[in-house]
Fold:
Amino acid sequence: MPDHFRKEKINPCVKITLCLWLCLSISIIKFLWNKSLKLFFLSIQRKIVPLCHYLNNNSREVKIIHVDMDQFFAAVEQRDNPELKGKPIAVGHDAERGVVSTASYEARRFGVHSAQSIQVAKRLCPHLIIVDPHFQRYKEVSAQLHEIFHDYTDLIEPISLDEAFLDVTENKKGIELGVDIAREIKQRIRETTGLTASAGVSYCKFLAKIASDWRKPDGLTVIHPDRALDFIAQLKVEKIWGVGQKTAEKMHRMGIFTGLDLRNMSLTRLTQEFGKMGQVFYDFSRGIDNRPVISEWERKSVSCEQTFESDISENSAVNIHLYHTVLELVRRIEKNDFEGRTLTLKVKFLDFQQITRSITVDHILRTKDEILPLAKQLMHSVEFHSHPIRLLGLGVSNQKSSTAQEQQPWVELELEFEPWPEV
Ligand code: TTP
Ligand code: MG
Ligand code: MG
Structure:
């Protein structure tokens, strides 16, 4: 046999060295992947995905309609009692601590608005007529609206009783233009309920919502993809989703007044100043909003959570934060018209260890006075003096009625907690 066909025996020492080298190289690649490459690819992905989605949205010509009823509770009251038509009315309980749910447009001219104290409203508008709310009627109208929406699409995301997003890209009637569907829906709402609605049409939720508010009452506004960037450029930042009073003031201090000013800010600066919302503002200012319309989205829970700048372990600090978390939770329960019977406390400690504690009662949890004592009771079971807290969350779930036997105090429960953006 010629020499070059002879198998060369590899020295066992060389074999072991090669194996060791291989293991070491794999470990180094794994380490690098975890530490930096992964972050690098993630950051690229964060930039590319919204862009692709945006382009994809445009090429598919997604059509989203946002419908919102005009002066909803007040309009129902004026419809059902013609004597109230054309008059300044506020819906709410005429009590010392009563709050305005909504005001008719006649009353809004005097500065009366939702969430204002009834007493203040009466001072602003001396002829104001206060009307008790009739929630059953508002719910009935809401059901009628949804019946109409379903004739066009099943991709409906209700936001509140008087408001919903509809994805009509593929609609049941095969109507090509979103604006034609919106016009038809408005017409049918008027015929069926005797009330007016405003609608906005665009290729994403953020713009459709702004559009429905653009020409209230009885408005219909379309923001075409080709016009979106110009439209956003002149938009006051206060109109942008997620920009509340505090954020708007901060933006003004940074010299940001319009969508164009926002677009001129770097992503780094926006995330430095606004945390997670920085990315959202960055995208919105470029007309990018890839949130889908989630059909018949039924909330299984309502929750909120807050991470503290410095960890807390003092009784007084924990009590104050618990109180504020309860207030935020109550606000969200009201906003979502949510009915749940189980309260869950979530606590994350300094070392990132996390626990949840839940308690179920036999009535629906709605008010601060109902929730705060339960939250304190749950907090009582948590040892935090030697174990400082970095995050506190509260959530309400369990919409089904529960009997006394079903009550399971102190059980652990997993809830998807929603972060609590500063708006
Ligand atoms: P909105 O749609 O915010 O307000 P609106 O329909 O009264 O007026 P607009 O024409 O500007 O849309 O809210 C819908 C209903 O939700 C409103 O009629 C009453 C209720 N609501 C409250 O109870 N409290 C509130 O703080 C708000 C904002 C609304
Ligand atoms: Mg409305
Ligand atoms: Mg609304």
Notes: The chain has 14 helices and twelve strands. The longest strand covers residues 301-312. The domain at 230-284 is CATH 1.10.150.20 (DNA polymerase; domain 1).
